Amino acid sequence: MLVRSASEVKQDTIEQEGVVNVKIRWLISKPEGAPNFAMREFEIEPAGHTPFHSHDWEHEVYVLSGQGVVSGKEGDIPIKAGMSVFVAPGEEHNFKNTGKDTLKFICMVPHQ
Amino acid sequence: MLVRSASEVKQDTIEQEGVVNVKIRWLISKPEGAPNFAMREFEIEPAGHTPFHSHDWEHEVYVLSGQGVVSGKEGDIPIKAGMSVFVAPGEEHNFKNTGKDTLKFICMVPHQ
Q: Quick check: A1 and B39 CB within 8 A?
């Protein structure tokens, strides 16, 4: 069993085209022995965003704090603490912080 | 894309031996199109607990609010908001609320 605070996990800044002010922590993944999928924590600063893209795998997201939108073919959908987001494989999407505080969520993905 | 508040999802009381005061919401699972794993939200009332058991699949947990312990061969490990818990396949475990407020966490499991 592995029990730890997110703050104990190294946080990395994502340096990638289309990404602005996004940090990630890999909370549970292959190095911790996870056999199927990974749990990551994202922090997006105000006006920051992830890239608008699609990929072959799904996202399962739970919003922890802050305010933002998830964008896709449906337009911009507001998100805040206590909301869950399912992005199916192949769906274009991105996450943007539209608030004044850090937008924080966890995002699960299958191992690749 | 599916975006919704946890409060929009039907909450069920778990009626099972060894379970006391535990409610569950299946936030994202097969009916929502999830191909690999499910996200559930648990609420455990003060002094409530899940069963002490093991199974062939893993848990990936993120604690949202409240206070409790996760118990295993290592003893009782305190948990609170912002902590992640990885329970490997085959590990005996349970979650108990040791605080005065609802213990709330999300728990991911692979499809069976």
A: no
